[in-house]
Design a protein that fits this description.
The protein is α/β, with parallel strands linked by helices and about 230 residues long. Helix content is about 45%, strand content about 15%. The chain has 2 domains: about 1-10 and about 80-215, HAD superfamily/HAD-like (Rossmann fold, 3-Layer(aba) Sandwich), CATH 3.40.50.1000; about 15-80, DNA polymerase, domain 1. The chain has 10 helices and 8 strands. The strands form 2 sheets. It has a 6-stranded parallel sheet with strand order 5-4-1-6-7-8, sandwiched between helices. A two-stranded antiparallel sheet has the order 2-3. The chain is globular, with a radius of gyration of 17 Å.
Length: about 230
């Protein structure tokens, strides 16, 4: 059995680091600071799309440069493992599960985060979006992991905190468990149609057992766009 995880909002809380880097960037460019609720709703689609959400088109490239330079350091100071996540990952490895990461966070920042928090050792594969063509919910990262690890769709489960994660799982043909506490509300996640929802990451296995009994997956494919 393979369990694939999103990073932000699922196993890691980096919202403080993200907020600090964004507001540093906005201040440098002469924009008003953004509130954390607004910031949380905008994350999850890659850092370029994130910055584009807050600045004019003419400022995107400079904004992205400022954001990335600040964020590389902010991640080391203001990110933390979500309670229960480390214990869960350690337990899953002991039980023989294969584990992987599929994240829209750029590869270098994902590696910084996973290494700094001591989580990288738990994962057999890490796949992150390098450009807009690879960003979830497009079916690129998850199928790539399945092929790399030699696992069938039926033996894989994806875990994330956003509707984009649920849609990504559907598009890749794998079951999905949604975790509350990230960027999407319970009602939004429920409407997206995961096979299960857990309030805390520590409850994943209980929900996953229910998911394994649901053998029929939705054949609906979520339409993706250039800005997804």
């Amino acid at each position: 059995m393979l369990i694939i995880f999103d990073i932000d909002g699922t196993i890691v809380d980096a919202y403080d680091a993200i907020g600090r880097s964004l507001n540093y960037t906005l201040g440098k460019l002469g924009y008003k600071k953004a509130s954390m609720p607004v910031i949380r709703r905008a994350v999850g689609h890659g850092d370029r799309n994130f910055v584009e959400h807050f600045v004019d088109r003419k400022d995107v490239e400079e904004g992205l440069r400022l954001y990335r330079a600040h964020h590389e350091k902010a991640l080391l100071k203001y990110s933390k493992v979500i309670p229960g996540a480390r214990h869960l990952l350690r337990g899953l490895k002991k039980k023989g599960y294969k584990l992987a990461i599929a994240s829209n966070r750029p590869p270098n920042y994902s590696m910084i985060l996973l290494k700094h928090l001591g989580l990288l050792k738990y994962f057999d594969a890490v796949e992150c979006a390098k450009n807009k063509r690879q960003i979830k919910p497009k079916p690129f990262l998850i199928p790539r992991i399945l092929k790399k690890l030699g696992v069938s769709k039926e033996d894989a489960l994806y875990v994330g905190d956003m509707t984009v994660d649920v849609h990504a799982g559907h598009n890749a043909g794998v079951r999905v468990v949604a975790v509350l506490g990230g960027s999407s509300s319970h009602s939004e996640l429920k409407e997206a149609g995961p096979c299960g929802i857990t309030r805390k990451i520590s409850g994943l296995l209980r929900v996953a057992k229910t998911c394994r009994k649901k053998r029929s997956l939705s054949s609906k494919t979520i339409r993706t766009s250039q800005n997804s």
